[in-house]
Write a structure and sequence with these properties.
about 160 residues, alpha+beta, 4 helices, 5 strands, about 50% helix
Length: about 160
């Protein structure tokens, strides 16, 4: 086999390997997209925004602030930095495991200092997890409601 034939054979092998890699990446991206859609649906099913808004209206007379951070969507600041051609590494935008597959919803208010209830709904190797102020809760509506009440009382130390 000549040098040129060897290179042509290697080129064909390389084309096949690249195509396989591309298919694998596309499959992984499709799977991740589906998992993220499931996570968003779970957030709606549990009523995360609705329950925190109800707590704000009822317990805080609407004086609290609710913020939702979707880990896989760039925030406005990141988009601004990208427009300027900046690349700033912000480790705070990822959770402790470096995972961005989390929806964080925070109810914060001022009551002799800033208080907050942070709800994290995310993906882990075991599936979907739900945490309130870093305490794991079963991802079920009743457990979630009870967890919010406990977290509110803990924040106010009552």
């Amino acid at each position: 086999m000549t040098w040129r034939d060897t290179l042509e054979g290697l080129k064909q092998d390389l084309t096949e390997v690249r195509a396989q890699r591309q298919r694998r990446v596309e499959e992984e991206e499709a799977g991740l997209k589906k998992e993220r859609e499931d996570l968003s649906l779970m957030s709606k099913t549990l009523g995360v925004d609705e329950l925190l808004a109800e707590m704000n209206a009822t317990l805080l007379d609407g004086k609290g602030e609710i913020q939702t951070i979707i880990g896989w969507e760039p925030d406005e600041e990141s988009e601004y930095e990208a427009d300027l051609g900046l690349s700033i590494i912000d480790e705070s935008s990822e959770d402790e495991d470096g995972d961005t597959d989390v929806i964080t919803t925070i109810l914060s208010w001022d009551e002799s200092g800033e208080l907050e209830i942070a709800v994290d709904l995310g993906l882990s190797s075991e599936g979907i997890y739900l945490q309130i102020n870093e305490i794991e809760i079963r991802p079920e509506r009743e457990a979630f409601e009870q967890g919010l009440i406990v977290a509110f009382k803990d924040e106010l130390e009552i």
